Amino acid sequence: MKRDEILKKYADKRTKCVVYTRVMGYHRPVESFNLGKKGEHKERVKFVEC
């Protein structure tokens, strides 16, 4: 199956995913950020543990 076919097939089962990030010692949803803060969040380097 192609990606579009899968998305159409399971469209009724999909839900919104809220992404949280740690800001100033507490967690906040990224969707509540202003435009500038969202840009900063996209540019952050994400570390992966080996």
TrEMBL record:
InterPro entries noted in UniProt: NrdD
Name of this chain's protein: Anaerobic ribonucleoside-triphosphate reductase
